[in-house]
Amino acid sequence: MVGILLVSGVISRLVLRKLRVRRVLPDHGIVGRMMPVTYEFRNEKRFWPSLSVSVSEIDGAEGFMRQPQCYLLHAAPASTASVPAELFPKRRPPPARPLPAEYQLSFRVREAGDEPARPRHGAGPAGHR
Q1: Mean pLDDT of 45-54
Q2: What pLDDT, in 10s, does the model give residues 77-112?
């Protein structure tokens, strides 16, 4: 019984070793509509194929209606296999980083008769002092 478990562990390690996965996204997606995605599996082993590999995305899964997942049946040695998948985005991703304070907009309310503020310290057009 322990021997079967040991052999299963060794074979599982061989199947996943030197297997590279890349996700290819389309140019744009629309919230609530199907978005086709392709997962490319590159098997870099010389002799051993990769068989029966299931991929589920964990990070960022809350941004989709269903958890993104796909199934690879077979990837021959030294070859690339493409597996199509359908994703349904449910919200936009958060911005990569917040805008710095100098880019945030501020508004000033002026009355109809007020003149616009003049630049100070030579910051205006050339020749204007």
Answers
A1: 88
A2: 999 999 999 988 887 656 555 555 554 444 455 556
Determine the pLDDT at residue 78.
92
* Residue spans of alpha helices (H) in 17-127: none
Helix (H, G, I), strand (E, B) or coil at 21: strand
Domains defined along the chain, listed by start: 19-94 (2.60.40.10)
Lookup result for tokens 């880019």: 103
CA distance 36 to 42: 20
CA atoms of 34 and 88, how far apart (whole Å): 5
Distances (CA, A) of 40 to 15, 19, 55, 91: 16, 10, 11, 25
Q: Residue 92 CB: number of other CB atoms within 10 A?
A: 9
Residue 121 sits at φ, ψ, to 5 deg, of 60, 40
